[in-house]
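Kindly review these tokens for lecture notes.

. . .
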Amino acid sequence: MHRHNAVTPQSPRGDLLELVGAIKQGEETVSITSMWRVHAETLTQAAALAPCLPPDLIFTQLVPLMFVRMQTARPIPCRLAAARTLLVYLRHMNTSEQRDHISNTLVSEFCEGNSCHKRMLFLSVATMVLEMFSKAFFKSNFFRPLLSLH
């Protein structure tokens, strides 16, 4: 979308909100079906919105959705797809407050989560962070919490 200038971060705010609303509604529709492969692909493809939308809109509209899907999607591939998309969004955040909020929420909800499934998902997230971000970013945000897992 961004390559063809169909949707850019400078597009009218109302148009962007309408687009995000339609995408969220489509994702919600797919999430309640038994077609988990389609749902996982939908979550994966949502990462393509990162360069097309303003970071504040991503942070307020799509980041919470990815956290919800990481916690509530039953199939593991859907949870992993939501996590990877969330990390793509993390890369596109402008402010350190937004980046810190996402990182801290990942640690508090998943590393310090009460279920082994959440903690195992955090291990997968940590692996993705190592693949997608610098070692310094990993060390400053995820290394100590990862060592504290038990």
